[in-house]
């Protein structure tokens, strides 16, 4: 993910920081077992109204199961799921103010776009005239008015995705549940659609819960992200927080690219930590406040784009400076990723932005280089 910007700049919306905010979706000590297998493990989570919330994690970590418990396709084995203060236990899916949009879209192939959008409304026995108005409104919302009479096979992947979205929104759910909604789209269309989704969510003022294993997608669309592992939430925070202040090696490593150097904490004062990373990493000093004791093991975590690579040694190389040899260079166009092998044998990645069009490579294979960084560039993790 390199030095990519962290999502669109969002409104100043942060109900999770306000103790007076009422929870909207609440998981209270929820466990979900399938036979002996624990898919969700004693999980507690609060999501707020109008939030765009992303569940992120590797395959099988329980993301979809969580979402299905909101939709009513699964019930918790233990614990409660509440929506707007109401316990959802026993409420069937069609009685819940939620709608789930699947990756496959599940459009009816023999029906036109407008008939697909109208389907749920007919089932709800909405008066015909109202259905027509609502369908028109939804078509305009997803910019598909000219395609109303087409069948799904006459649409592109992105258009089908928008029909599915219009159909999910037609019944005006309070919560839209999106399970890998953009999985079928190519990268470029996917990126455009992510911004459209955010736009739509803000325009409608709805709560969106998205499941994805694409971390860039989660970072782009979400107000907050929950990073999951084996049925548990490891960290819930804004995209910038999970990127800049991961609470563990698991989160640091799952989101973007990161270098982890193991060491021993030698000094830990208020706002300052020193770590001895041995021959490979040298002495690291970090501006950070944390609970740790000298002597404890720690990991210095730093993103590749936060290191400066140089052919010349720095003037005062006592801390936050390591030397190594360029072992590999990955040219990605916008940036190059340098793999630098340290004396101890470990490899560190550093990203260099290719600002000029020059194909000249000032730093090349086997060059001896120095990596430096400021004291606020990385963080120390103890788990
Ligand atoms: N109906 C079921 N019966 C038995 N096991 C299930 C059932 N549904 C899910 N599981 C198991 O629970 C775990 C979590 O599944 P879930 O679908 O929630 O994962 P996920 O994080 O959404 O994964 P993916 O990203 O692959 O969709 C998996 O190991 C899965 O095999």
TrEMBL record:
Q: Which UniProt keywords apply?
A: ATP-binding, Cell inner membrane, Cell membrane, Membrane, Nucleotide-binding, Translocase, Transport
Reaction catalysis annotation: ATP + H2O + polyamine-[polyamine-binding protein]Side 1 = ADP + phosphate + polyamineSide 2 + [polyamine-binding protein]Side 1
* InterPro entries associated with the record: AAA+_ATPase, ABC_SmlMolc_Importer, ABC_transporter-like_ATP-bd, ABC_transporter-like_CS, Mo/tungstate-bd_C_term_dom, P-loop_NTPase, PotA-like, PotA_ATP-bd
Could you tell me which SMART domains the record lists for this protein? AAA
Note the PROSITE patterns from the entry: ABC_TRANSPORTER_1 (PS00211), ABC_TRANSPORTER_2 (PS50893)
The record's annotation in SUPFAM superfamilies points to: MOP-like, P-loop containing nucleoside triphosphate hydrolases
Note the superkingdom of the native organism: Bacteria
Q: Name one GO molecular function term.
A: ATP hydrolysis activity
Per UniProt, residues of the ABC transporter domain are 25-255
EC number(s) stated in the UniProt entry for this protein = 7.6.2.11
Q: List cellular component terms (GO).
A: ATP-binding cassette (ABC) transporter complex
Report the sequence similarity comment from the record: Belongs to the ABC transporter superfamily. Spermidine/putrescine importer (TC 3.A.1.11.1) family.
| PANTHER family in alphabetical order | PUTRESCINE TRANSPORT ATP-BINDING PROTEIN POTG, SPERMIDINE/PUTRESCINE IMPORT ATP-BINDING PROTEIN POTA
Subunit info here reads:
The complex is composed of two ATP-binding proteins (PotA), two transmembrane proteins (PotB and PotC) and a solute-binding protein (PotD).
Q: Check the record and name the NCBIfam families matching this protein.
A: potA
Described by its record, this protein's role is as follows: Part of the ABC transporter complex PotABCD involved in spermidine/putrescine import. Responsible for energy coupling to the transport system.
What's the name of the protein? Spermidine/putrescine import ATP-binding protein PotA
Organism source for this protein? Bauldia litoralis
């Amino acid at each position: 993910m390199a030095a990519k910007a962290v999502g669109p700049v969002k409104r100043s919306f942060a109900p999770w920081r306000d103790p007076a905010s009422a929870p909207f979706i609440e998981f209270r000590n929820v466990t979900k077992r399938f036979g002996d297998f624990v898919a969700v493990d004693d999980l507690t989570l609060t999501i707020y109204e109008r939030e765009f919330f992303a569940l992120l994690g590797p395959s099988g970590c329980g993301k979809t199961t969580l979402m299905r418990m909101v939709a009513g396709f699964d019930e918790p084995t233990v614990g409660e799921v509440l929506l707007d203060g109401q316990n959802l236990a026993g409420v069937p899916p069609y009685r819940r103010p939620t709608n789930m949009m699947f990756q496959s879209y599940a459009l009816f192939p023999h029906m036109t776009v407008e008939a697909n959008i109208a389907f749920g409304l007919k089932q709800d026995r909405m008066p015909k005239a109202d259905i027509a108005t609502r369908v028109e409104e939804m078509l305009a919302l997803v910019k598909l008015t000219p395609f109303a009479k087409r069948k799904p096979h006459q649409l592109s992947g992105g258009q089908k995705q928008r029909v599915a979205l219009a159909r999910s929104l037609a019944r005006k759910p309070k919560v839209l549940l999106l399970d890998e909604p953009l999985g079928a789209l190519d990268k470029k269309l996917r990126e455009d659609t992510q911004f459209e989704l955010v736009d739509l969510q803000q325009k409608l003022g709805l709560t969106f819960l998205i499941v994805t294993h694409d971390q860039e997608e989660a970072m782009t669309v979400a107000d907050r992200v929950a990073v999951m592992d084996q049925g548990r939430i490891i960290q819930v925070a804004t995209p910038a927080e999970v990127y800049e202040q991961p609470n563990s090696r698991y989160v640091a490593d799952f989101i973007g690219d990161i270098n982890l150097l193991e060491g021993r904490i030698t000094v830990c004062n208020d706002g300052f930590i020193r770590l001895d990373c041995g021959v490979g990493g040298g002495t690291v000093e970090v501006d950070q406040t944390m609970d740790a004791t000298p002597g404890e093991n720690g990991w210095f975590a730093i993103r590749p784009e936060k290191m400066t690579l140089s052919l010349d040694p720095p003037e005062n190389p006592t801390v936050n400076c390591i030397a190594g040899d360029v072992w590999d260079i990955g040219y990605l166009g916008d940036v190059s990723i340098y793999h630098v092998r340290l004396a101890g044998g470990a490899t560190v990645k550093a990203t260099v932005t290719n600002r000029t069009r020059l194909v000249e490579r000032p730093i090349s294979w086997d060059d001896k280089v120095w990596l430096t960084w400021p004291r606020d560039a990385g963080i120390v993790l103890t788990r």
